[in-house]
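2.7 Reproducibility. Because tokenized structures are sensitive to small changes in the input, we list the exact sequence used for Sigma-54 dependent transcriptional regulator, including any N-terminal residues retained from the expression construct. No trimming or masking was applied before prediction.
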Amino acid sequence: MNESLSAGNGVLVVDDEPDLLTLYELTLLREGLEVETAASVAEAWALLQQRVFRLVITDMRLPDGFGMTLLHRLEEQNRSEKVIVITAYGSAENAVEALKAGAFDYLTKPVDLKQFRGVVAAAMGRVVSQPAVAAPGAVAPPVSAAPLAKLVGRSDAMLQVRNLIEKVARSMAPVLVEGESGTGKELVARAIHEVSARAGQPFIAVNCGAIPENLLESEFFGYKKGAFTGANEDRSGFFQAANGGTLFLDEIGELPLAMQSKLLRVVQERAVRPIGAVNELPLNVRIVSATHKDLAAEVAASRFRQDLYYRLNVIRIPVPPLRERLDDLDSISSALLDRITRDAGVSPVPRLSAGARRLLAAYSFPGNVRELENLLHRALAMSSSELIEAADLGLPDTLFEDSAGDEEPADKAAALAVESLVPVEALAAPRVASGPPPLPDDLALYLDEVERGILVRALQQHNFNRTAAGARMGLSLRQMRYRMARLGITEAAQDAGGDDLS
Ligand SMILES: Nc1ncnc2c1ncn2[C@@H]1O[C@H](COP(=O)(O)OP(=O)(O)OP(=O)(O)O)[C@@H](O)[C@H]1O
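Resulting structure tokens (single pass, no recycling of outputs):
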């Protein structure tokens, strides 16, 4: 034990290959860090019993066990050390496992020293802003729960989302948030940032689908004065702006392939070179991405790079559609009404009548929480009292009739129609007498709704026999089940006593 070492910038490196250990040690010493080394789990643990380090860098395979053992022990004891694991080339599962277990980051052998320095700088940079830990056994600061309060909902599905957010907060691992439009993916990304030690640093949200292709590079990486016509001064990109904090890449599936390659390079090397610059700038940015697309399918269709997908998708947080967490509808509606009236400076906050709540619960919310928010905005404008009635919601008449009474919908057809309600725009298309329907704002959502309407009609025509309804449209039972599940009409059909469940 070296008494002179402070916890401040002490790094413990664990590797059983003496040459590598020396190489790592020299690299770290050159960075001005204080280094101790160990060649086995036992040796490392003995050192960790004596003092606290800022960072532990460990090879995965050691003569007497695995680097994961050290990670698990440190996690169990809630120690403050960040852990970086070094895994063999091609063992991505190990790396992912380590990140899920709480590792700060991982490096793959053969270790690129530039990357090594970048990862270490990120780990040290993050810790520097925290109070120095003085004694063995000191615990990491608890994560703050306040940011999670903005994410309203106590359904099982939301509790799972919250748990995941808390779990990933301490790590640097990239997170992919998946879910339909308007489910709250950005809110989840913000919560990850705010719960993490990066909370005081910038959170930069970028909608990848909204930036013209020819501007992507300069927007992301910045440029130097004179790099191209019109570059009259140096300009930072999103990465530099997010340095020290979190970069939220919304609609990552919209990035063109050429930009995906450039993004991968920056993410791997943890450094960015602005257009026209000679030198790279080191980065310490956590990446949280989001998509409403099935990115695995995009990879299969060669529209998304597999290597980038694996890099961004270390931890996946699926955010379920609102129709799958109707338990949360009342609390989310109240929170939204609170927010809307507060923003408008109106009081008191109106309430939803029992009829209005019933009507909302019968709706399928293809636009999820954002649609609920818009709907409540409109309802507030329509309502003339402190009570928002069903009629103020502006929902389609079919739904209105079905849920007006307290009784359950009378027959299978009604149950299915209510569950899989087609939004007004989708229904309107075939009814319009002259001229083409307006272009949809969201083609995928629009087509989903058209498909939903067709499936419901086919099922109704075939007395809810999915095999027959599918066969009528050239679909196997398996394809029907898949499509019904995807479009959220499985349950209604089962409730309705579908005769070919198997
Ligand atoms: N659980 C929730 N509690 C309170 N408000 C929510 C919740 N989920 C979403 N919202 C609100 O719904 C709106 C849409 O959320 P958000 O922008 O995070 O969705 P998104 O999934 O990122 O949407 P998109 O895919 O269109 O980018 C926001 O105003 C957000 O504050």
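Confidence is low (pLDDT under 50) at residues 1-6, 126-143, 402-435, 491-502.
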